[in-house]
Amino acid sequence: MSQIQHLSHIGFIGLGNIGLPMTQVLLKAGFKVSGYSLTNMDRFADAGGMAASSAADVARQCNIILQCLPAAPALESAVYGPEGILATLQPDSVVIELSSYALKDKERLRDAIAGKGATLLDCELTARNAGKTVLAREEVIFVGGDEKLAQEMKPIFDALTPHHRYMGGFGATLKVKTVNNLLVGVNAMAAAEALALGTRAGLDPVLLAELLPMGAGTSASLENYGLAMAEKRYADILTGELGTFNKYFSLIEDLAKSCDAPTPLTDISRDYFNRAMNDGHAAHGIQALYDVMMKDAQK
Fold first, then answer.
1. Beta strand 94-97 pairing with 64-67
2. Residue range 43-50: average pLDDT?
């Protein structure tokens, strides 16, 4: 059954740093959006969205649902709970999952949705500067699953960003996102190390954070976190919490083991992320790596 005639009204579950601006973009593009989240419901309604009473209410209203959750535990209420989408999911519905989970969690989700006669599109996204990137329609969306169905959903992806690509069958997008986040973690470590070295060498870290992103050694991590590192603004959540990002190291390890790939830089980075977690930075931004690095420099 073609879903094209139903694309004008879509559902959205999870209105966080990425989900909320995605709905704002969809609303601006002319879509009717029903949404539900534990946060930002007022901001969603102010943007023109229709606030649903639960995830189940979204699935009752819409047969195209986008979902953007922070971590796999959120699936228990958003999907599997009594007010989750499975309670009211219609046959022939499409769930476009944009969140990052371990493969086993995605497989469980796929199978549960299939059990209702619906289909999961397995997607991932990366945004250079989180919500700002999404609002500017500059994020990259990796699309996986049934290729024909992915093509039918193209109007939604086109509205969100011109940078979307079909990557292959179920599971392909998780591999892409895992490789992407290897670079994020390692580059964040490199930024912290460079700024710590410059600071210990007597240079002004703020000046470094302002100038280095203009040079050949830049990265999105340096651009996103450098100034916050230099100014020790660890509590600022620029792209997400350090503790939330830390989950990706397990995904990197699983992927590397599956194909016997060495990850020496990732292993070092993971150690510093874990130390930052142990130092109380789990709810802080990734720039808190600089604090750990500076403590090492003072030993």
1. parallel
2. 97
Q: Which two tokens stand for residue 43?
A: 């901001």
Alpha-carbon distance of 155 to 210, in angstroms, equals: 39
Helix 264-276 and helix 172-200, axial crossing angle in degrees, nearest 10: 70
Task: Please give the residue range of the domain that contains residue 254.
Answer: 175-297
CA distance 296 to 299: 5
- Determine contact, residues 118/145, Cβ cutoff 8 Å: no
Strand 119-126, strand 140-144: pairing: antiparallel
Which tokens go with 249? Answer: 């190291």
- Please identify which residue in the block is written with the tokens 């990265």: 219
What phi and psi values does residue 100 have, to the nearest 5 degrees? -105, 120
Mean pLDDT of 53-77: 95
Q: Give the CATH number for residue 138.
A: 3.40.50.720
